[in-house]
Amino acid sequence: MSVHLVGGGWQDAPDGVVYAGFLREAAARAASAGREVPRVAVVAVGDGDEREHAAKLVEAASAAGGFEAHVTAVGRDGEIPAAAFADVDGIVIGGGLTPRYRDLVEPHFGELRRQVAAGVPYLGFSAGAVIAAERALVGGWRIGGVAVAPEDAGEELDELTVAPGIGLVDVAIDVHVAQWGTLSRLVAAVEAAIVEGGLGIDEHTVLIVGEGGLRVEGAGSVWRVLPAESGVLVGTIGG
After folding, report:
1. Strand (E) positions, the chain?
2. Model pTM?
3. What's the confidence (pLDDT) of residue 238?
4. What would be the CATH architecture of the domain defined by 3-138+166-238?
5. Domain extents in the chain
6. Disulfide: which of 21, 39, 44, 139 matches 54 by Cβ 3.0-4.6 Å?
């Protein structure tokens, strides 16, 4: 099974493109367990808007196919129970304030790695994509006091901050790249050796990491940033 990393973004009329591969895998997992409809964990963290966010995720994904949503919506000072991930055929972690998602999901990192290794597909939307990395770039807009991205993209953090993530992918992930102007942050982080390499995902775009390598679906691009002898090497993986 695969790890599906979505760069965020909402559509007025959801087409389900970035969720289709994930739901196919969840449906196959359900069929092997004797279930006609996949049961999918949907986790949303917010500041009073978590239920609305969960509902939007379910609506967007439902455009790609039917599933039973097992929703866990918690406030930023809440806790995610272990039962959130019990007996499911797929796992969706939503978007919002990335540092808070990381902190609330951290007690479940080991269980999430175990489930993905056992064949349960994972989909991270925005913050959920960022924290899927082994070393998660959780926010910040400056390095050494120098601006490297728009302040609005800082996630309530000033200095660029990297923290342990779930560990489903081995490079740093950034999101909303073309829309928020965060490619410069990823470039600066790699050039400063804060992370060893990174992938930046545009909105309405999914990076699928599976046994067959990397695949991109959706409307945008995935930006690949790697260290090079004279700085960094930047390229795109098109959809």
Report:
1. 3-6, 39-46, 68-75, 90-93, 122-125, 135-139, 142-143, 146-147, 161-164, 172-175, 198-201, 205-210, 213-218, 221-228, 231-238
2. 0.96
3. 67
4. 3-Layer(aba) Sandwich (3.40)
5. 3-138+166-238
6. 44
